[in-house]
Design a protein that fits this description.
Elements: E1 10-16, H1 22-31, E2 46-47, E3 59-63, H2 71-80, E4 83-89, H3 93-114, H4 128-134, E5 138-143, H5 154-167, E6 171-176, H6 185-197, H7 215-228, H8 238-249, H9 255-265, E7 272-273, E8 276-277, H10 279-291, H11 295-304, H12 315-318, H13 327-334, H14 343-349
Parallel strand pairs: 1-3, 1-4, 4-5, 5-6
Antiparallel strand pairs: 2-3, 7-8
Helix pairs in contact: 2-3, 9-10
């Protein structure tokens, strides 16, 4: 069952040290403004607003208590969470340090215990599929950015968080927010929502340095390429690329966009031949989507062509349900004029 089709709401757990602004982030998300006077230390679970989750998948945001007495309750929530928003205070170095010294190892340990295994802080010895089953996507959020004199660029942020993301593959996204100024509040919860609906570790090997595409995805892309290659000439020309775009995204692709795609893919050796995309280029295009944080684009392609979250063709795609003829259709077919051929005509034809 895909995340998008789950019957029960998705759960996004918000965790972190005391005073980092977990509850303020949630209240700012719901009220769209900062609450100067906090009434409660922990808010009850709240549904993610529709404008933040346009996929129409019900999602609950679950606040947690940072007090020592609530340790068991926080761990219980971590066991069932579909995604975790891990918050720290950008103005507090100790808060930042506890991301790797406490919180991320704790999340790993709790998730591994929930799966009936014990995880170490380093590499796991289980097989790939088991490791992915217990890994929960984590969005790392540096809150209180309004206290920063210098606003860091994306490249600076990448440099700061690189040591963390290289060691903890479950950290799929990092962001800086401010509940007080409502900066990037919605975005950080959107990142968590998308991390569940469009699982990255099913597409790429998140433990590898280059995050290469997994073999099942490569096989799926090769199959889709052959299906879209209508004239069976081994490449996708402009018309076939337009047809692919319309089929998946219901959008028309302009010639300028097509030319831009071919220029970008052309940087890959063997990606373009005879001014058209090869299977190598088609695969490389989806690798680029992943590198640019657009796993949702790749999943849109996969699901349009019948693939589940495990990148296997769904039974409903392979064997579509039989739709019986309606009474109106039967009446139309039976009322059609019949052609009567006489024996003489039949003998003449013979």
């Amino acid at each position: 069952m895909t995340a998008a089709s789950a019957a029960s709401p998705l759960r996004v757990a918000v965790v972190g040290d005391a005073g980092v602004g977990k509850t303020s982030l949630i209240t700012s998300l719901i009220a769209n403004r900062f609450q100067e006077h906090k009434v409660v230390a922990v808010v009850p679970p709240v549904p993610l607003p529709r404008e933040v989750s346009p996929d129409d998948v019900a999602t609950l945001v679950v606040d947690t208590d940072s007090r020592l007495a609530a340790t068991a309750a926080v761990d219980a929530e971590l066991r069932v969470a579909d995604a975790v928003v891990l918050v720290f205070d950008v103005s507090n170095n100790d808060s930042f340090g506890r991301i790797t010294s406490h919180w991320l190892p704790r999340i790993r340990r709790v998730r591994a215990t929930a799966s009936g295994a014990v995880a170490s802080d380093g590499d796991d010895s289980d097989d790939d599929a088991a490791r992915r089953r217990r890994r929960v996507p984590v969005v790392l959020v540096g809150n209180k950015v309004d206290k920063h004199i210098h606003v860091r660029t994306d490249s600076e942020l990448a440099g700061v968080f690189a040591p963390i993301t290289s060691k903890f593959a479950e950290v799929q996204c990092c962001a800086e927010t401010s509940a007080k100024t409502n900066t990037n509040v919605r975005e950080c919860f959107q990142f968590a929502h998308k991390a569940v609906l469009y699982p990255l570790d099913a597409l790429v090997d998140v433990d590898s340095s280059d995050r290469s595409l997994r073999p099942p995805l490569r096989r799926a892309l090769a199959r889709i390429f052959r299906m879209c290659d209508e004239d069976c000439d081994g490449v996708l020309d402009d018309n076939e690329l337009r047809a692919f775009q319309r089929h998946v995204f219901r959008l028309n692709l302009s010639q300028n966009k097509i030319d831009g795609v071919k220029r970008e893919v052309g940087k890959c050796v063997g990606g373009v031949a005879h001014d058209a995309l090869t299977v190598v280029g088609f695969t490389h295009l989806h690798q680029l989507f992943v590198r640019k944080g657009r796993a949702d684009t790749v999943w849109s392609v996969m699901r349009r062509f019948g693939y589940t979250d495990s990148l296997r063709l769904s039974p409903s795609y392979l064997c579509p349900p039989y739709a019986p003829l309606t009474a109106a259709t039967i009446a139309k077919l039976t009322s059609a004029p019949r052609v009567v051929v006489s024996s003489a005509t039949a003998s003449a034809a013979a």
